[in-house]
Amino acid sequence: MLTIGELASYAGVTVRAVRHYHAKGLLSEPERDHSGYRRYGAHAVVELVKIRTLAEAGVPLSRVRELLQADEEEFAAAVADIDERLRAEIRERQRHRERIARLAAGDSLVLPQEVVDYLDRLRALGVDERVVQVERDGWIPLAARSPERVPEWMARKWEHIADPQVIDFYLTLSQALDGTDNDSRLDELADKLAAYITQMANEQGEFYVDDTALEPPLAELLDTHVFDTLPPARRLIELLTKRGWTGWTKLERVNSTRGAAGTR
């Protein structure tokens, strides 16, 4: 007859595991001998090895008793069911791994790949990372709210940054980030930007610069984030307003009676 320590050793488990299986009702507890110790026979070793094998195979302890008592057909059906459950868990864990990988990839976690590519292009063009981050933060709610419109908006953005005037806008803004409200570069930038917007509106129609149909509260929220993150942007819009246009996310003519929409 075996002590609990010897039983555990023969079955390749710990004494703690044996006691746990006792508590779960998976392994019967023998009566104590005259010395007060529990003694186990060969049957206990066999049962314990079966329990250990099933547990190591991923069978929940709640189902181990069922399998131990099942006939061949019931055992096969139960194993098939457990196997399917494990497959589902593996798929779920794979999805978790993919999300972790995306998290490590930064912007890809919350943005479509076409937006990530666009942001990377801005970086490659030398746009200040602070400006890129504001662009990114603006795209996150837009992509979440209207994912079906992202390809359309991105096509417009790629068209814009193919124009040297737009790149000059980004680069000038980047250079003015560490300046003051009186930075002459902001006045020059407002002149250039107003001229460019007016040119596009005259050539393409105002809908060209007014096509996102964002709700005013969302546009105001995004604008506030831009102005808080990039203080020169607020001054730039003040200067732009004097030149006939206003708004950052929702760009519109000053005193326009039309519904406003943005340039994203």
Structure at a glance:
The chain is an all-alpha fold. It has helices at 4-11, 15-23, 42-56, 61-69, 72-104, 113-124, 129-145, 150-161, 164-176, 184-204, 216-229, 231-241; strands at 245-246, 252-253. The longest helix is centred in the middle third of the chain and has 33 residues, at 72-104.
Feature tags:
264 residues, mainly alpha, Multidrug-efflux Transporter Regulator, Chain: A, Domain 2, two-stranded antiparallel ribbon, 2 strands, 2% strand
Report on this structure.
The protein folds into 3 domains: 1-69, Multidrug-efflux Transporter Regulator, Chain: A, Domain 2 (Orthogonal Bundle), CATH 1.10.1660.10; 72-104; 107-253, no CATH class. Helix 6 (113-124) runs parallel beside helix 8 (150-161). It contains 12 helices and 2 strands. The chain has helices spanning 4-11, 15-23, 42-56, 61-69, 72-104, 113-124, 129-145, 150-161, 164-176, 184-204, 216-229, 231-241, and strands spanning 245-246, 252-253. The chain is an all-alpha fold and 264 residues long.
List the helices and strands and how they pair.
Elements: H1 4-11, H2 15-23, H3 42-56, H4 61-69, H5 72-104, H6 113-124, H7 129-145, H8 150-161, H9 164-176, H10 184-204, H11 216-229, H12 231-241, E1 245-246, E2 252-253
Helix pairs in contact: 1-3, 3-4, 6-7, 6-8, 7-11, 9-10, 10-12, 11-12
| Strand arrangement, major sheet | 1-2
Q: Tell me the distance between the termini.
A: 80 Å
User: Mean of residue pLDDT?
Assistant: 83
Along the chain, the helix and strand elements come as HHHHHHHHHHHHEE
Spans of at least 5 consecutive residues with low confidence = 256-264
Structural class, please? mainly alpha
